[in-house]
C-alpha cells in the first residue's frame, strides 16, 4: 500500500511542476450566467488569452460545476481570482465583480498549490499544508468552525492540517490530508448526505412548522467509514462526491439522482459506497483522473479507458452505472473536468470537449457548433500539450504548454475585460426595448391604440414563453432545479420569483398570497397565468379543469 501511495505522489508531483498559458472560453457576463437576463453578450467562443495572465506561468486552475468564478495559481504560488463576487468568493475583501484575473493580496504570504471553487465560496491549500477559505459560509462550507459570519470577504483559516488537496461542491468542501486515519474530511451542507457522515442533519425549523432545514457542519470532520483507507483523489459535483483510495477503489456518496453515484439506483447515499464496477481487474491505476459534474461522474480506469455515469446527455437515458465511453478508447487522457453539462479533456497533444453548452464553453470557434453529443477536438489547440483543464458553470479553462507551439499562441485573441471599478453596466442595456416600441405610436390615435394592444399581447406571449424556455438554467443546477435547490427560495425570489408558478397546478404552483381574491375567476390558477390573462389573452391562459 505504501508503494501505491508513493506512486500516486510521484504522479502528482510530475503533474504540478510545470506552468503554461491560461486560455478561457465561455461566458464573461459573470453576474448573468445561469440567470434569466436575455441573450448574453461577450461570450468567448474560442480559447482566448487573458491580458493580465499573458506570459504568466499558470500551473493549476479551479472552477466548480456550480461556480461562476475562476481561480488560477501560478508556479510561484500566487493566487488569482475573477468572476462573480456577490458573496466575497474572490477573497479581495469586497463584493465587487472582477472581469480580469486579480491577485489575491491577502494570500501573498502563502505559496498556494491547490484550490477548489464552490457555487459561492473558494478554498485554497498552501505548500505547508494549511487551508484557507473565503466567500459564503451559511452552511459552514468554509470549514472555519463557525457560521457566525455568513460571508467571509477575506481568507480565514480552515480547521484542518497537513492538507494535500481540496475539492468543492456547490455548498460543501472536501479536504484530503496526510493525517493517519483522517485522509478525507468534509464540511458544509449535509442535505443529501454528501458529507459522508451517515446523516443529512435535517430538522424542523419550528415545532409547529413543516419547513425543513439542515444543520450546518462548520467543523471539518473525518469520514469515519473511510478511516481505514488512504484516500488519494477526490472530486465534488453539485451535491455528490467521488473519491479513490490508494488501492484504486472508487467510492461515491451524496445525491443519487440520474444514477450519478453509479450504483444502478437513484438512492441518496449518506456514507461512502464502493462502486462495484471498479474492482478486481479494473481498479484505478495511480495516474487515473476523476471528475464530477453537476449531474454525472467520470474516471479513467485500466488502460486509460474513460468511464462515465449519471446524466450524460440532455436527452436520452441516464447511465445508472459506469460505462466506457468508446469514442475516447485508445486516447491517453491526462486531465478531465466537467462543468454543468459539458466536459473538457486533455489527451496526448489534443484538447477534446463535448456536452451541452450555451455560452461557447466548448471552444469550437465562431463557425463551429455550439454543443456536441460526441467528443470533438478543439481544432485551434490541436498539437498543443495540455497541462490541466477546469470547467465552471458556463466556461472552461485550459492551460497549454508554451514550448514547441511557435507563434501559435500569438494568433489567439486576447481578452481585456473591464477594470475592477467599472463594474458591469447590464441593467441599462436590459430595458430599452419597450422605449423604442412606444415611440412608434404615430399617425392616428386609433392606430396607436391598436399597436399598443398588439404589443401587450406580444409581451405577454414573450413572458410566458420566456419563463418556459429559461427554466432550464434558472438555478445553477440546470437539471435538478426542483430537487437540488438547497432551500434557495430567497434566491429565486430575487431572480423574478416566477420559477415556481408555472400555471400548471404542478409542484409548487401555490396561490399568490396577495390578500385580494383571485382577480380572474379564481380556479386555482397561478400568478404567471393571472398576469398574462390580465394583459390580454396570454397563450397559457386556459383554466384548469
How would you describe what is shown here?
With 545 residues, this protein is mainly beta. 12% of the residues lie in helices and 31% in strands. It contains 6 helices and 31 strands. The strands form 8 sheets. Strands 29-30-1-2-31 form a 5-stranded mixed sheet, with no helix packed on it. A 4-stranded antiparallel sheet has the order 3-4-5-6, with no helix packed on it. A hairpin with a 3-residue loop joins strand 11 and strand 12. About 19% of the residues have low confidence.
Q: What does this entry show, briefly?
A:
The protein is mainly beta. It contains six helices and 31 strands.
- Which whole number gives the mean pLDDT? 83
What oligomeric state do these chains adopt?
Answer: single chain
Helix- and strand-based class?
mainly beta
Write down the overall geometry.
globular
Task: Quote the beta fraction.
Answer: 25-35%
Percentage of residues in helical conformation: 10-25%
Separate helix tally: 6
Largest sheet: 5 strands, mixed
Our measurement of the CA-to-CA distance between the termini, rounded to an integer number of angstroms, reads: 66 Å
Name the strands of the widest sheet in spatial order.
Answer: 29-30-1-2-31
Taking pLDDT < 50 over at least 5 consecutive residues as the criterion, the unreliable ranges are 423-446, 458-539
